[in-house]
Amino acid sequence: RGKDEKYKVRMPKLRVAKEYKDKRKSIDDLERNIFKFKKSSEEKSKKMEKEERSFRETFMYHKEIRVLATATAARSVRSRRRADLPLTAGEHLDVIEAAQGPAVICRNARGRYGYVLAEHLNFR
Predict the structure, then answer these.
(1) Phi, psi angles (nearest 5°) of residue 38
(2) What is the C-alpha separation between 107 and 91, in angstroms, rounded?
(3) Strands (DSSP E) found in the chain
(4) Torsion angle defined by CA atoms of residues 76, 80, 81 and 85, in that order, rounded to the nearest 10 degrees
(5) Fewer CB within 10 Å, N side or C side of the chain?
(6) Model-level pTM greater than 0.70?
(7) What is the pLDDT of residues 35-83, one digit of tens each?
(8) Strand (E) positions, 15-91?
(9) In this structure, is residue 15 part of a structural domain?
(10) For residues 87 and 72, what is the distance between their CA atoms, to the nearest angstrom?
(11) Residue 29 CB: number of other CB atoms within 10 A?
(12) Domain of 58?
């Protein structure tokens, strides 16, 4: 084996014009991104359906889910209970229903549902 490797001829790399190489790379990336987008949107929709099912079970909500208003979180709030929705400052929320008392049921961009105190929201 040692002798075979000793006499092995190394082939020089073919040089490719940088412009062509960059163009080829961008086309390959574009094709890959299309497939990744489809896959991630499928996963996202499955996750949203799962969140909706758990929301309906937790809150015993059997009506059609309609967005009444959109709001922005005024400040960050951690959730204390499972039914509460944790907030980050500036996060956009969809208000689903105004429940009794100071809390409203909201949905965040990731599809999670929960109670949020109205005093933590800025309505547009």
Answers:
(1) -65, -40
(2) 11
(3) 69-73, 92-98, 103-107, 113-117, 121-123
(4) 0
(5) N
(6) no
(7) 555 556 777 788 888 888 888 888 888 888 888 889 999 999 888 888 8
(8) 69-73
(9) no
(10) 10
(11) 10
(12) 21-123
Taking the alpha carbons at both ends of the chain, their separation in whole angstroms is 76
Listed residue (120, 50, 56, 57) closest to 85, CA to CA: 120
pLDDT given for residue 72 in this prediction: 92
Q: Retrieve residue 89's tokens.
A: 């400052």
Number of separate domains in the chain: 1
CA 39 – CA 121 distance, rounded (Å): 34
The CATH number for 40's domain is 2.30.30.40
Taking phi over 0 as left and psi of -120 to 50 as alpha, with beta for the rest, 17 belongs to: beta
Locate tokens 């969140």: which residue? 51
Any domain includes 61:
yes
- Looking at the domain assignment, is residue 7 inside a domain? no
Structural domain contains residue 39: yes
